[in-house]
Every structure is written in structure tokens, then in C-alpha cells.
Amino acid sequence: MSDTVIRVENLGKKYIIGHQQQERYTALRDVLAHKAKGITQLFNPKSKIQNPKSEEFWALKDVSFEVKQGDRIGIIGRNGAGKSTLLKVLSRITEPTEGRISIKGRVASLLEVGTGFHPELTGRENIYLNGAILGMGKVEIRRKFDEIVAFAEVEKFLDTPVKRYSSGMYVRLAFAVAAHLEPEILIVDEVLAVGDAQFQKKCLGKLEDVGKDGRTVLFVSHQMATVTQLCRNAIWLDRGEILLHGEANHVVSQYLSSGLSDKPVVVFEEKATEDLSFTKISLLNHNGEPNGELDVRFPFFIQLDYVVRKPLKNIEMSVRIKASDDIPVFTTISSDCSGYEPMKEPGLYTSTIEVPKLFLMPGMYTLTCAAFEFGKCVYSHHQNVMKFSIAETGTNVAKYNHHRDIGVVLVHLPWIENRCKTAVSNRA
Amino acid sequence: MPKLKLKRRPAPADAELVIEAGRTEKNYWQDIWRYRELFYFLAWRDILVRYKQTAIGVGWALIRPFLTMVVFTVVFGRLAKLPSDGVPYPILVFSAMLPWQLFSTALTECSNSLIANANLLSKVYFPRLVVPTSAVVVSFVDFAISGLILVALMAWFVYIPSWRIVTLPIFVLIALAASMGVGLWMASLNVQYRDFRYIVPFLVQFGLYISPVGFSSNIVPEQWRLLYSLNPMVGVIDGFRWAILGNESSIYWPGFALSVSLVLLLLVSGIWYFRKMERTFADVI
Question: Comparing A68-77, A340-349, B107-116, which segment has the lowest mean pLDDT?
């Protein structure tokens, strides 16, 4: 007996993309013109070369994987990697060009929040309509109606047309309906990036619950922290092919570090238009040598070189270190340590931060840096500008295999132990 | 509550859905049945939305056919003095106006339905046939409302229909089938070639004059009757008049049979073409 609920074998999806063709749809005129050309080609076989105006494009190619019952799988990859196409094929919206998928169980897909919402209809009417579109029955919707309304927090506006809703209310209502689907397999495309932070948290919690009920979730996201938090496994798609499939933490860290420089020195091109710009960021080991692989037993240095082109007030510099799953470990800001410098005169500057020894858990990290004026503006910001690793060279956690399961920092805390009772009563 | 039981029944563990290129689904019609609630909700939405934010609302379903009927009565009955076989001219016109209006609105709605619901097609799976069918059903509501005018007209002229009125539903079904058949063709072609967005209104306008709406089809010379019946709406309209006007109206049966078989051909081929194109809708819409 196997508990595989989704089996994808050699899946491929081909699109014909047109060049120099702006229209989204074909006009009959073009087709007739092409047919006419085809006839002339019949008599002139030499000209029968491929139409240069169109080109094959494989959005998915040779994709195979299996999903087990109750699995939560994150699908990650860059824009255009084929994530959404995969979800569309899985949810039967579009047909694959080749390959085969077998699915066991009721599938509900949530590729967009508020699909089929009609602006003229009231909130109440839209709950029913959207529920039906997502595959719920009338009875089922009626049963969950109050729950949906409470989740969306729109009680007062139930009988107002949704066109008068604020965009936040609209999105909350839409997600609330979707969140109350009860399929065996739930397919979700990047829909959590909506609403305020509090609502996002609520949505995530809801999705986690769905997974806990033993239902299978396929989840596309660009927020890596969400993927690692929500999913056990992940698939990394790149240009329509699976690059890596495995444990979520591992796949995410590989994905995040894939495009990053692993050189210990990153030099930026000068942008003379900016008031302040970084020129160089370097990672130095305890000997002051640039190094991207650092020994855990020694401190290391992060050095920022930057240029200020006009006098600037209340500048703050910051450095953030993130672990491989994109969760920040710490952020350090210049004013926290050295206080404000009221005015920074034009010139070249170098700031250095010392990261103490035996602090970061051995593993992969990324570095982000920024210069800003608090509450006002950001002068320069470099997200995940480089990656580096802390090498395990003999810490007291070296005997454990998975460092990331232990934590992100090494601590040395004194344990105080007291014996409270001399003997334990031996009750069998 | 048998409905509830059916919906809540979990899918059998071995029910496996296979998605493959070019696979025609075995349980397509079963699937349509499972999605009947969506069908109902889409129709309900369109009916709700139809006259939202209008001052006289459903009144439009009465005013439009009524005014057309007045114009036709004046032009064809009074000015052109066409024969009416002893039936009050307004009733003669209106008994054809009803099926024609049903056909034209259903056809228009049906052809535009896929494009109007493009966001649904590209984001959610359901049997695509649900969309044009529910569009057709919505135009049936307008038909039922303007049917009231006919009742009022018959009361006004004290015109009592014969037993044939009970056969009216059959002709309604034929009218629906005709609009569905043409509509499915237009809807699927419209997805790929937006040219049909312009063809349909033209077709509808043109059809109003080549169909016997403003006049009785008896004025068409006998030898041309069969040819005239190539227009499927001729059969439908003659059928309506036969059922409503009672003994005053005769029907040309060979022509009627030809019209009905054309309607069936259109419907079957429409469904066939729609099903053939349906798989690529999401990609090209």
C-alpha cells in the first residue's frame, strides 16, 4: 500500500511564444494569412523552414516527483521558473504537453485571492459565489459562513457591495473563503503576500492547521522564511526543471545562496548620483585577510567602505546577518553602539564590525547592509550581498549532526544544579 | 436531504485522477453534474448583477421588447400593411419577438461568456461548459419576464389560445438549443479570434430581419419556404406562432423539420467543437 497522493511523471508543458507580436490574442486575419503562406510553401518546399515569428518554449520540462499524504511541499524558484505553470497543470486549468500526473483525492487550488469576486455583489453574496467557484457546496458554505465572516473581520459590511470595500477588507474576505476549503489536497500560489502583518500571520496559522489535519499542501512562495516554516519538503524549480527536491531547510539554503557571491570581497560600481553609496564590502578573518570561510574559534570582521558625497545628518549604518533559511540572526546598527554622529561630512569612510568568536553556529549565512536615516529615507541597501560560512573546527556542539536544529548562536551559559531530594520514591 | 449526502460523500480511496496530454476525460459529464452548484451560482450572479444600479431594474426586460413590438407593428402592420392571418398584429409580432429575443440575448451572452469570465478560466478548474450554459439560462429569465407582455396583450385583445399552448415548452427548448449551438461555436471561436466579438452583434441584427419576426412567414412564396427554413430560427418562430396563435396559424412542416434538424446539428457540433477547444482555453484566452 502506498500513500502517494500525487505522482508526476516526466511532465512537460510547451508554449509557443510569438515574437514581434504585441496582441494577446490571434486575429482571424493573421491565421488566414498564415494559411495562405502555408499553401505557397507547399509548392516551394525550400521555404518550409520554421516560422521565425514563433518559438517553442518549455515552461516545464521532464518534471517528476511524488507527494505523500499529509506532506507540505514548498515550490521555490525565480520568476519564470515554471512554478505557476506547474500549479496550473496540477489543478487541471491547463493541459500538459507530455507526461502524466495521477492524483488521489479532492484538489482545491488557490492561485489567486478573490477569483470570481464580483464588485457589484455584496460581501455575503460573494462568499457564496467564491465558495462555489473554489469547489464548495452551498450547504458547506452555509455551515462555515459565520466562521468565514469572523475570520475576515467584515461583519459590519456584509451587505455592502465589495466594490466599496477597502482593498484590505477585500483581500481578507477573499482569503477567508479560501482558507475554509477542506480539500484533501490544497494547492496555493503566492497568495499570502496580502493584508497587513497581523492578517498574514493569521493566514499562515490557518495554513499550518490545514497541514496538521493530514491534508496535503503544495505551496508556492517567494518568502523563504514562510516556506521553511510551513513546509517539510521543498522543490526548487529552475527554467522548468527540478534542480533540487528534498528537505525544505536544505533546499531553501541552497536556493538562497545559489546566486550570491561567495567571494569575501564585493566591490560596487560607483554611482555618482547617490548621496551615499557603498563601494566595497569585505569579510576579514582574524588575521585581517579576506576570507569567506571563517573559523568558528576566532572572531571575524565585516568591513564596509562607503563614500559620502554631501553633508548628511543622522546617518545610520546597519549590517544584518541571516541564516541560510532567510531568518535574521541579528542586525547591528551603528548608532546603537557608537551613538549618533550629528553630521557626516563628504569623504570616504570605512566602518568595521567585529563579530566575536564562538558566536555564530557553524553553517551558511548571508550578509545584508544598509545606510539610512531612521524614519526618513534609505540611502543605500544591499540585500543578501554575499554569503559566507562558519566552519566547524571544534565547538562543543560538534558532535551533533544538524547544527541548525540546535540554534543559530553558540552559547556558553552556566548551569546551576541542585539536588532537591535525596531519594526518588520508587513507585512502579 | 439527499443533496447534502451526495456532496459530503468522500471520494473513494482508489478514485484516481489522471492528467495527461490529449486525454479526453471519461467522466466529463459526471463532472458537470458535480459542478451543478457552480452552474447555479454563476447564473444567480448574472441575474443579480444584470439590473444592479439601474433605476427601473427589471423594467428593462419589459420596455425593450415592448417598444420593438410597437415599432414593428407600426412599420410592418400599419405602413407596409402585411397580412396577419386574422391575428391582431401586436400579438403576431410579439409571439415571434419572444423566441427571437430569447435567441438573440442567449446567443450574445453565450458568445461573450468565456471572455467575460476569463479570470475564472485561467485560475480555477471546472468543466468549461458550465459557463456558456449558465449564460443561456440567464437570458431565459428575461424571456419569462417579457412573456408577461404577451399575456397582457392577449388579455387586452381578448385572445384565447388553443390547446396548442401546452406544446410551447418544446419550442422554448428548441430556441434554447439553437442559441446554445450557435453560441458554443461563437464562444469557443471568440476565445481564439476576437473577431467574433464583432460578428455576433452583426449576426443578431441581421437575423432579426431575415427571420419572420415582424411578419408572418406565410408571405414567403411557397417555392422558397424550404430554403427559407435553412434559417433555424424560422422553424422556432413558426413553432411559437403555431403554439400561441392557435388555429389561425398554420405551420410548414417540411421546413420545420429542416430547421429542427439544423438546430440539432448545430448543437451537437457546437458541443463537439467546444470540447475540442476547451483544453487550450486557459492558454490562449
Answer: A340-349
Number of A:B CB contacts under 8 A?
A: 126
Show the domain range for B225: 36-284
Taking CB atoms within 8 Å and a gap of at least 24, the contacts of A77-83 are: A77/A236, A77/A237, A77/A238, A77/A243, A77/A255, A78/A238, A80/A239, A81/A237, A81/A238, A81/A239, A81/A240, A82/A13, A82/A237, A82/A239, A82/A240, A82/A241, A83/A189, A83/A220, A83/A237
The stretches of A221-340 forming alpha helices (DSSP H) are 224-230, 248-258, 334-338
pTM of the full structure: 0.72
Unique residue bearing C-alpha cell 419576426:
B213
Q: Mutate which of B3, B19, B281 to disrupt the A interface (most A C-beta within 10 Å)?
A: B19
Residue B192: Cβ within 10 Å count = 18
Instruction: Please judge whether B123 and A112 are an interchain contact, meaning their C-beta atoms are less than 8 angstroms apart.
Output: yes
Say which residues have a Cβ less than 8 Å from residue B263's Cβ, sequence separation at least 6: B174, B177, B178, B181, B232, B235, B236
**A136 beta partners:** none
Q: Residue B9: what pLDDT? A: 41
Tell me whether the CATH fold assigned to A57-256 matches the one assigned to A265-397.
Answer: no
Task: Indicate whether B18 belongs to any domain.
Answer: no
Cβ within 8 Å, pair B17-A134: no
Question: What superfamily does domain A57-256 belong to in CATH?
Answer: P-loop containing nucleotide triphosphate hydrolases (3.40.50.300)
Nearest residue in A to B14, CA atom:
A104
**What integer pLDDT is reported at residue A110 of this predicted model?**
81
Instruction: Give the tens place of pLDDT for each residue, B259-282.
Output: 999 999 999 999 999 988 888 888
Does B200 touch chain A if contact means CB atoms closer than 8 Å? Answer: no
Which residues are CB-neighbours of B21 under 8 A, at least 6 positions away?
Answer: A95, A96, A97, A98, A99
Q: Is residue B115 part of a domain?
A: yes
Report yes or no on B236 lying in a domain: yes
Which residues, at least 6 apart from A406, have a Cβ–Cβ distance to it below 8 Å? A361, A397, A400
Give the CA distances from residue A194 to residues A135, A160, A217, B130, in Å, rounded to whole numbers and listed in that order: 22, 22, 19, 30
DSSP state of A375: T
Identity at A5, one-letter amino acid code = V
**Residue A355's CB: how many other CB atoms inside 10 A?**
19
A265-397 placed in CATH 3.40.50.1240: no
- Phi first, then psi: give them for residue A189, nearest 5 degrees: -95, 155
Provide the number of structural domains found in chain B: 1
- The residues, any chain, with a CB within 8 Å of residue A129's CB and separated by 6 or more, are A116, A117, A118, A121, B41, B42, B44, B45
B16 has a chain A CB within 8 A of its CB: yes
**ipTM of the complex model:** 0.80
Q: For chain A, give every domain's residue range.
A: 57-256, 265-397
**Does B179 have pLDDT greater than 90?**
yes
Residue B20: band (very low, low, confident or very high) from pLDDT cuts 50, 70, 90: confident
Closest chain B C-alpha to A252 CA, distance in angstroms: 27
The answer to whether residue B9 is domain-embedded is no
